[in-house]
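G., the chain you wanted modeled:
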Amino acid sequence: MLAAERRDHLLRLLAEKGKIVAKDVAAELGISEDSVRRDLRDLAAEGLCQRVYGGALPVSPAVVAYDARRTVAPDGKRKVASTAAGLVRPGGALILDGGTTALAVARALPKDLACTVITHSPTIAAALLDHPRAELFLLGGRVFKHSAVTCGAAAVEAAQNVSADLCLLGVTGVHPEAGLTTGDAEEAAMKRALSARAADTYILASSEKIGTASRYRVLPWAKITGLITDADPHDPVVEQLTALGVPVLAAG
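Predicted structure as tokens:
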């Protein structure tokens, strides 16, 4: 099989099965695992897969720059945001992550809702300026422009001095094996710091993130209260997550 044919075969496997196991592909095609790994390295370099131990997973479309993400699955994000906003109780304290889905949550909050919103996103804070009864607490630190949030040591330290009833956290990838992932190590650490300061943590995940993976793990499944997604409840990945005991809230 020519290199171009192997490439097409690998991409078909990703689309159909949601993962590639290098040793299985090598046995199927009668080639070495090294050859498969080289092919996967080439695909990963083009942003077409996320390499993991033993093979590869579909890459998340949510790792592109912030402005580009605004146009990715806007309807799905609005559905997720509407369900997530309904979890915020009057008088409660909310830790709201950055990103485009979190921004949709901010816009979905009732303007007369009395609550406290803690965020490390200047964009989120700005979106809530016209909510007269919402107290805003902005966590400072180095601005990670890719996601329009603060992160790093100063931001993590600031997060350790707050607490909340609820944390709504965004990720770029949701996969039964790879877990909850994002594309930057410092951003992943910041998300863990935020989640640790809330009684309950829900993950915001529109359907395009389901079954995909990024490089850095954010949290294990046991550390979250639930997953909010507009993905079809009968989606094979959603069914796998449910079988793992992950509470899934259907948005839509």
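The mean pLDDT is 91.

Shout if anything looks off.
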